[in-house]
Amino acid sequence: MRPKNTLCLWYNGTAEEAANFYARTFPDSKVNAVHLAPSDYPSGKQGDVLTVDFTVLGIPCIGLNGGPIFPHTEAFSFQIATDDQAETDRYWNAIIGNGGQASACGWCKDKWGVSWQISPRVLTDAVTNPDPAIAKRAFAAMMTMTKIDIAAIEAAVAGP
């Protein structure tokens, strides 16, 4: 039975490659089905991969090979909560090491243009701390980072 709500991600012919990468990289992720086009369409031919049903960390997704007309933007991202530096590094390095690119404040983009926020729970807890001084210090530390450094966030929370 299909889920009631599914994220649809638009790809330029690379939905299956992306889905396979996500399935290898993240737990509770898999490629569920690959569907071929029943006839020619604007960006492909009959028999090409048209859609891929996959799951990323338990979230149902469909990759649609719709062509180059709608590229991914930072307006959509997967936010991955991590528990420690090793997990943060593992996901960050997997995305960057597979043709992705680093951005700021824990954001990166995979080689297909999908944005990811690799966000340690320590960071989220710190920047939402009810003590405004702690939240401000943590936020200021985060603003200097590319990949999040948990020890530096913890030092900022501890204060001067």
From TrEMBL:
Any Pfam family: 3-dmu-9_3-mt
Q: Which SUPFAM superfamilies match?
A: Glyoxalase/Bleomycin resistance protein/Dihydroxybiphenyl dioxygenase
Q: Which domain of life is it from?
A: Bacteria
Q: Which residues form the PhnB-like domain?
A: 4-118
The name of this protein is VOC family protein
The species this protein was found in: Pseudomonas lactucae
